């Protein structure tokens, strides 16, 4: 059974860094676009960053551009989100997602992603 497992969340002070990981198992995700979304209490899930199946193209929400970096290691079937210069408004549950349409373009909406991790909590203190 294919699944994604998110890890790496925690408590960090403003200005600090965290690195999230998303490990895929059960099948290879090397031909799938991958993304990170986040959801704060009382808010809708929002796109944070995405990466194409090849890893050659990335996209970021304006709120994290220049601070977060998404990458993937296809050999390890793992996607990462490096978060630097973190702010209290980055506090949320973070979820990785996979779009199982082979070689599809990266999307920013939740509806095209059909594999989801269980989420990992990130809390940034001021």
What's the helix and strand layout?
Elements: E1 3-7, E2 10-13, E3 18-25, E4 33-39, E5 46-51, E6 58-60, E7 68-73, E8 78-83, E9 92-99, E10 115-116, E11 120-125
Parallel strand pairs: 2-11
Antiparallel strand pairs: 1-3, 3-8, 4-5, 4-9, 5-6, 7-8, 9-10, 9-11
Report the helical percentage.
under 10%
Which structural class fits the helix and strand makeup? mainly beta
The total of beta strands comes to: 11
Order of helices and strands: EEEEEEEEEEE
Amino- and carboxy-terminal Cα gap: 40 Å
> What proportion strand?
over 45%
Instruction: Outline the low-pLDDT stretches.
Output: none
Total helical elements? 0
- The pLDDT mean sits at 95
Written account of the structure:
- The protein is mainly β.
- It is 0% helix and 48% strand.
- The protein is built from no helices and 11 strands.
- Strands 2, 4, 5, 6, 9, 10 and 11 form a 7-stranded mixed β-sheet that branches. A 4-stranded antiparallel β-sheet has the order 1-3-8-7, with no helix packed on it.
- A hairpin with a 6-residue loop joins β5 (46-51) and β6 (58-60).
- The radius of gyration is 13 Å and the shape is globular.
- The mean pLDDT is 95.
What is the gist of this entry?
This protein has 126 residues and is mainly β. 0% of the residues lie in helices and 48% in strands. Strands 2, 4, 5, 6, 9, 10 and 11 form a 7-stranded mixed β-sheet that branches.
